[in-house]
Each structure stands twice: as structure tokens, then as C-alpha cells.
């Protein structure tokens, strides 16, 4: 049985203004990750292990580099939703509310949180359905023989004491001490829950350490730009309403791959043709196809507030 959205409550006799919509929350991953165009649903992205260097004495042979080079696989998955709208509602609201634009905006807001949660903060192994990708958080909790990464090496948990200056510093140090540190490409992606933590960290005299106008907080952390994302809370499955532990990531944006296959885009099937002809119901469809992969675990570090 098809389920139609109803909009009768949007059509009161005294209604005279535009529909107040939620703020379109931008996705940190969509905005900041390295975007990889995809022409099909899979793409192998070459991953270089680098090249070493050593001293060569006069007359001695050069050491041949033995770095192992491989690739990262991106698989595009589809995210979307369809809305059924009575043609009468579309026509009756033309002067007071743009239903199409409003629902597009609503979907974009939810998609931004969903894609960030799916790529950054799901706590289970990717299965291509309820857990679309192997998230950044999950990657940091697993061994990877290909990259010689040890599970949890770059994961810091606050414990019952909550977020402190020391565990923030330790998280950044995990990343900064590695070979993938690049000051110009370093970003922080965090749940807005950390804003209160930043404001609450004080020195021995009770004065806030991160002072707006001096350290730039809450939009920078130790001079690194912070992108806030409501998707940065742990969840066993991908969702646009995660409620688990807040997480903060710091790392090199070049090592976070977002495959771009199509969208976000929307299409409308009118009520006068096709399957909707007999019911006078239009269909609004919104979708995006994305792939995701962590290029190298050592390029990132995470702070989990599990207090």
C-alpha cells in the first residue's frame, strides 16, 4: 500500500508566509574529503607507499626501493527517498508554500547527517546495506596488515573524566607524529557536542583555555580548522539521527576518499501521467550515489567521548 505524505496542516486559511524550513546542514565529508569522480559503480584508486631515501657513499650501489604499492576500492551506493504528494496539495499551496523546495531542503539536511555518519562514525564493519561503508572510526579500531596499522593505535577515549586538554592534545599528537602529517591539509571534524567541552576546559586559575578571538575556538582547535557535523556520533548502523558517543577526528583530508558517482539530485513525476494518473499524486524522488574509503589509517586520529 503506497503511503502519501499529507499537507492539510500547511493550508490554514490565515497562512501567509513561506514555510519555515530547517537549516540546510552541510556535510563535512561532502565538503572536505578528497572527491574522486566515478564513471561506474566501482573504482580502484592507486595508493602509493612512498619512496625511501638513504645515504649513498661514493662508488657504492644505490639501494633499491621496496615500498609496496596497492590500491583502494571505492564502491558507489545509492542513498535516497521518495515522497508522494497529492496534486491538490501542490496546487493549493502554490501561493503560500513551495512543497517541492521545502522537502528537497529537508532531505538535503538529513542526507548531510546520514552520509557523515555512514562514512565517519558507524561502529560496525561495512556490509553495503545498513552499514554502507567501513567508516573512519571502525578503520581506526581494526588491524590492517596492508598499511601496518595496529588496531586502536590512533584512538583515544576520554573515559569517565570527559574531554580534557590532555586527551585533545594526545589525539592530535597521534596524527602529528606520523608520516602523513601535512599542516596545510589538516582538518578536524567533530560533533557539535565538543563545543561545550572546548568552552569548559580551563587553566589552573579557572580561565578558559580556548578563548574566542584568541584561539579562534570553537572553529579552530590548536589552529586547525574545525568542521562541525551532527553525523559524528557513534551508531551501529548508518542513520541521520545518531545518538552514541560523540567523536572528533583530526587528519589529512587527502586520505579520506569520497567517490562521486551522481547527485545529490531530484526528479519529479507529475500527477497527470504514468502510475500517478489514476490517483492524482505526484512523486518527488531525491538521491545520491557515493563511494567511500579511508586511504590510510595512520593519516587520521580519533577522540571518542565515552564518558
From TrEMBL:
Organism, by scientific name, is Streptomyces griseoaurantiacus
Q: What is the lineage of its organism?
A: Bacteria, Bacillati, Actinomycetota, Actinomycetes, Kitasatosporales
Q: Which SUPFAM superfamilies match?
A: Major capsid protein gp5
What NCBIfam families has UniProt attached to this entry?
A: major_cap_HK97 (TIGR01554)
Q: Which InterPro entries match?
A: Phage_capsid (IPR024455), Phage_capsid-like_C (IPR054612)
Q: Give residue ranges for domain Phage capsid-like C-terminal.
A: 11-301
Task: State the compartments where it is located.
Answer: Virion
Report what the protein is called.
Phage major capsid protein
